[in-house]
Write a structure and sequence with these properties.
The chain contains two helices and nine strands; from the N terminus they run αβββββββββα. A hairpin with a 5-residue loop joins strand 4 and strand 5. By secondary structure, the chain is mainly beta. The chain is globular and about 60 Å long. It has a domain of 104 residues: Jelly Rolls.
C-alpha cells in the first residue's frame, strides 16, 4: 500500500452535508490481485493466543484471508515470503489456494495477542486445511530461508 493511496467514496447527496464521515475511514490494507472462489462464503473470527503460543500448524485456505492485529504481535509467514512480525494496528493477508501459511502465532512471550481474520471459502471446503508433514517436506524448497538468531 502506498502513501499516495486514498480511500475514494462517491455518491450523490447534499453538498452542504457534513464531511466528517469521509475523514472517519482510514485505509489499512489494499490487496490485489484477488481470486475469490465462485459461490464463496465468508467468515470473520477473533483469535486469541496466550504468551508464546505458536498458533495454528502449517495450513492453507481455499480463498483469501484478511487480518487485523488488535493487540500484541503476530508472527506471520507465508510460503515464499520471509517470516515477519505484525504488531497491533497492522494488517496481513494471504491469497488462499495452494499457498501454505506456516505461522500465525503470538510473537510475544509475555503478553496475549488478539487478531481478527475474515476468510473466504470455496463451497464444500473447510475454512482451514492443515498441511501434512510429507507435503511440507516436498515443498521445503518453496519456503523462504530461515533467519537464525
Amino acid at each position: 500500500m502506498s502513501d499516495n493511496h486514498a480511500v475514494h467514496m462517491h455518491g450523490a447527496g447534499d453538498e452542504a452535508a457534513p464531511e466528517g464521515w469521509m475523514k472517519a475511514a482510514q485505509l489499512l490494507q489494499d490487496a490485489s490481485p484477488l481470486t475469490i472462489p465462485a459461490g464463496a462464503s465468508a467468515m470473520t473470527i477473533r483469535v486469541e493466543w496466550g504468551p508464546g503460543d505458536p498458533g495454528t500448524p502449517p495450513h492453507r485456505h481455499s480463498g483469501p484471508a484478511f487480518g487485523y492485529v488488535v493487540e500484541g504481535a503476530v508472527r506471520f509467514e507465508l510460503e515464499g515470503e520471509p517470516e515477519r512480525v505484525v504488531e497491533a494496528g497492522g494488517t496481513f493477508w494471504e491469497p488462499g489456494g495452494d499457498v501454505i501459511h506456516y505461522q500465525d502465532g503470538n510473537a510475544l512471550g509475555n503478553a496475549t495477542t488478539r487478531f481478527v481474520v475474515t476468510m473466504m471459502c470455496a463451497p464444500g471446503m473447510p475454512m482451514l486445511e492443515l498441511v501434512s508433514k510429507e507435503e511440507l517436506e516436498e515443498r521445503a524448497h518453496l519456503r523462504a530461508p530461515r533467519v537464525t538468531k
